[in-house]
């Protein structure tokens, strides 16, 4: 390990780092609030079906970003050999995310390769706070669907669904990234009706 990596940060450096992280956190909330307010105006003008369009765009954006960094054919070969490889690699990726994201979404990760899934339990989400602050929880769910598109880019059977969601009144978000048994099951688990804004009760 390099000498720089072993260096103990001063109190001033820690405070500066924290301030930068919090600036990012506030900017992230601001983006989400603008998104929520813009969509509210469109829903008022055109109806809730606008949320289908917004959610699909968020999913497509997540999928596009995922496809830039993933060789889906290679991932499929790994899955054919052993599904645990994908689940464990996903956990390594999540554990290695930078500190700014770790503040934005404070999480605990749990890989369960023998059951073909990886779960994320979030106890603090800056985006949930943002959408709650303007009372637009349902619109906020469309924002979260970026993750669903991104997850699906990793493998044709991979999906993400959320059995628990802060924007639906739960104390935590529980995201389950799972290798479905069939393409039909993948489409259902990852769908607007099952885990998107239309799953709102």
Q: Can you characterise this structure?
A:
With 201 residues, the chain is α+β, with helices and mostly antiparallel strands. It has one domain: Muramoyl-pentapeptide Carboxypeptidase, domain 2, CATH 3.30.1380. It has helices spanning 3-6, 11-46, 50-69, 72-81, 83-95, 99-104, 126-133, 137-152, 183-189, 192-195; strands spanning 105-112, 117-125, 158-164, 173-179. A four-stranded antiparallel β-sheet has the order 1-2-4-3. Helix 4 crosses helix 5 and helix 7 (126-133) packs antiparallel against helix 8 (137-152). The longest helix has 36 residues, at 11-46. The N and C termini lie far apart (51 Å).
What CATH first level would be assigned? Alpha Beta
Count of domain modules: 1
Question: What percentage of amino acids are in beta strands?
Answer: 15-25%
What distance separates the N and C termini? 51 Å
Radius of gyration: 18 Å
Secondary structure class reads: alpha+beta
Overall shape:
globular
Strand order of the largest sheet: 1-2-4-3
| Helix residue percentage | 55-70%
> How is the main sheet built?
4 strands, antiparallel
Q: Helices and strands, in N-to-C order?
A: HHHHHHEEHHEEHH
Name the CATH architecture.
2-Layer Sandwich
Question: Taking all residues together, what is the mean pLDDT?
Answer: 87
Under CATH, the topology is which? Muramoyl-pentapeptide Carboxypeptidase, domain 2
Protein topology:
Layout: H1 3-6, H2 11-46, H3 50-69, H4 72-81, H5 83-95, H6 99-104, E1 105-112, E2 117-125, H7 126-133, H8 137-152, E3 158-164, E4 173-179, H9 183-189, H10 192-195
Antiparallel strand pairs: 1-2, 2-4, 3-4
